[in-house]
Amino acid sequence: MAVSGKVIQHVLVAHCCQQDRKLSTQYRKDCCIPYRHKLLPYIRGKLAWTDISTMQLRTFSKFNRGIVYCNAAPSATIIPSVDKGVFLKLQNGSDIRGVAVYGVEGEPVTLTEPVTEAIAAAFAAWLLDRKKPDPSKRLKVSIGHDSRISAQKLQDAVSRGLAGAGVDVIQYGLASTPAMFNSTLTKSEDFLCPVDGSIMITASHLPYNRNGFKFFTDAGGLGKVDIKDILERAADIYKNFTDEGLRDAERKAAESVKRVDYMTVYTSDLVAAVRKAAGNVERPLEGFHIVVDAGNGAGGFFAGKVLEPLGAITSGSQFLEPDGLFPNHIPNPEDKEAMRAITRAVLDNKADLGIIFDTDVDRSAAVDFSGRELNRNRLIALMSAIVLEEHPGTTIVTDSVTSDGLTTFIEKKLGGRHHRFKRGYKNVIDEAIRLNSVGEESHLAIETSGHGALKENHWLDDGAYLMVKLLNKLASAKASGVGGGSKVLTDLVDGLEEPGVAVELRLKIDQNHSDLKGGSFREYGEAVLQHLANVVNSDPKLQKAPVNYEGVRVSGYGGWFLLRLSLHDPVLPLNIEAPSNDDAVKLGLAVLAAVNEFKALDTSALNKFVQV
């Protein structure tokens, strides 16, 4: 029987990585991993079984600090040539993203273990330049990861890269992205905090074969310029790798890496925040039935470690166990299937509230008792209502695709100011910080994607903290004698005008088309936008937004459209909202008429929408 080697590789590597994931999860329960399977190396197109390596973990502290030293057995290393361009292509805005395991046709692995070691060493060098520590003081860096099947091997590679660069390494295992940032702020000798820098291994909601890194210091997440700097350093470091140097890094990691259950600290802080909001009541959510959908990502802790200590009933919660193959649905609060799953869980269990997280818990959404989704514009409206109660008149910063109805709600009903900015959670957060620096008070920066950051929480986009703000509202209402379950939340968004039709279409740019004339897709996209802006200026039925920071936003036919250039990809996303399908089609036709002459632009999605 003939069997494809590629398929075997996919199944075996996925299975072996999943073994690591289960073992890592078990460690979090038992504080000890007696052993772990070593990944199958893929050498010269062949699979090879190797002996099972052992990871000796010995308990460190008689003070019950939960710290463990890890001695990992050494492994052979093959170092293929990788040029700087390959490293730079791993940048995804303020993150690093790549393919970490084989298994998807046409997607070769780009985030190898040696590449990962180089990136970690580069972060250490970047951190040393920024912190300039006393020569007698070693920097500390924490590492956490989500549930992805490649998490364990990348965590080990990051540890080697950091240790080889002379940095103390603290592994947190399964963790959330917000927790990793918090570890740079927490003051606790027992948990070796604060750390000087932090690395989260995640690729958010992307498919199982992807992975990546987010980096933090106590000043927040690193930006695009910093990521480019790190990748350039990594390329130089990689060129100078030697077998001896890599073995030395592995020896240093084996001798010095520690493990801490930091999620205990993070979840305790969330619990304390809700208790404080309810007047220091121990179980302020007693009687509330709240279900959680973690999508088999890293957010399963929220049910047992946050809600249950607060007194909530969590039966009916689903997909809490980490599984990096994501067998149930994509862990993404913007995904329709994911939102249907949490809605069903709420209705089937007659719950008061449903909460859903993305893979690494920096995004979230909710569902009320009636099955009404509280995501996108509704979540922004809800958070705006809560924040404006606390800070009347403050500015709410959002991304560019928020609705006109949201602006009316924030400004006319809530008395705040809506500052619509660009797509990209870092853009939105940085703009809120900038506004505060020039004297315009802002306490909330939030995207339709579910990324939301509050000034009171160090401008960290934390999906769990967003949900804590909702829980605070439930708890304080209960303490005041107001019943009705999550109706108190639903009532806060009463009056939000919502469109009859809302669509997002993606118009792709063919980078190989002759119409680009040797230019970049970005230059071509900008030309499309400029032409559209000129056409709109001559159409009396359409009006360009007087203040706009991204793309071309136009009102007309009772609705609006926004055509913009994707932050990273050769795509022009088109958002249309209108009172009716006929009005939405009219807006679509206006766009189509303006862009039809650009032959490298694939307008098939728009053609289908307007039925041309």
UniProtKB/TrEMBL annotation:
Protein name per UniProt: phosphoglucomutase (alpha-D-glucose-1,6-bisphosphate-dependent)
Domain Alpha-D-phosphohexomutase alpha/beta/alpha: 95-234, 285-369, 376-478
UniProt KW ATP-binding keyword: no
Gene Ontology MF terms in the entry: metal ion binding; phosphoglucomutase activity; phosphomannomutase activity
Underlying gene: LOC105161098
Classification via SUPFAM superfamilies: Phosphoglucomutase, C-terminal domain, Phosphoglucomutase, first 3 domains
Mitochondrion listed as a keyword: no
An example Gene Ontology CC term for this record: chloroplast stroma
